[in-house]
Design brief:
This protein is mainly α. The protein has helices at residues 2-34, 38-52, 56-66, 76-101, 105-113, 118-148, 160-171, 174-203. One of its GO terms (molecular function) is transmembrane transporter activity.
Length: 204
């Protein structure tokens, strides 16, 4: 039972922390993608293309085995958190950029005509409207991230999937064990979807 609880709590913690990190990093990358400075837009585009087009498992293995080689040593949990957050940040950035681009360009032009700076326009005009339009895309990313945390078990983090593998070695009941794990993931995904719908209605 203690192994089940440890795996569940690690999965929940990894999901919440990684999504929070992905939101912060993704917001920064999204800003880079839309600023009127070609060099910065290029930096943002390179980040998205590099992180999005290499599988998460490859990033996890690279971080777990590569970081110690350059003198960076962290617990496996935090190494997995870093890799997952930076990976998902690329998808968050694109969702945010799409939300910003969906706001009529005329509103930004009107704000600048009134004397607002780019930062003021983004903060007071563009982002509040874009926020309503990115709730569902971000919820989908959060659900995908929840499922992706199972890959952390491959590199040694004791998440729900890793715990299930260990329990199955003792019980030899894969159908029962992994059905239970699947239901846990289903409940988490349903909770995220429900929360997104509630938030969407409040922002409408």
């Amino acid at each position: 039972m203690s192994l089940v609880l440890e795996g569940f709590l690690n999965t929940v913690a990894l999901t919440l922390l990684s999504f929070a990190g992905a939101l912060l990093a993704g917001l920064l990358v999204a800003v880079l993608r839309i600023v009127p400075v070609p060099l910065l837009r290029g930096v943002g585009a390179v980040y998205v293309e590099v992180w999005r087009n290499i599988p998460l498992l490859a990033w996890l293995v690279l971080f777990v085995f590569g970081l110690p080689e350059v003198g960076v040593k962290m617990p496996l949990f935090w190494t997995a958190f870093t890799a997952i957050a930076l990976y998902e940040a690329a998808f968050v950035a694109e969702a945010l950029r799409s939300g910003v681009n969906s706001v009529a360009a005329g509103q930004g032009e009107a704000a600048r005509a009134l004397g607002l700076s780019f930062r003021q326009t983004l903060r007071h005009v563009i982002l509040p409207q874009a926020a309503r339009r990115v709730v569902q895309p971000l919820a989908n990313i959060a659900i995908a991230l929840t499922m992706a945390t199972a890959l952390a078990g491959v590199v040694g983090v004791v998440d729900m999937t890793r715990a299930a593998q260990r329990i199955n070695l003792e019980l030899a009941q894969p159908l029962l064990v992994f059905t239970g794990v699947g239901l846990c993931y289903l409940v988490m995904a349903a909770g995220i979807g429900f929360g997104a719908r509630v938030l969407e209605r409040r922002l409408a």
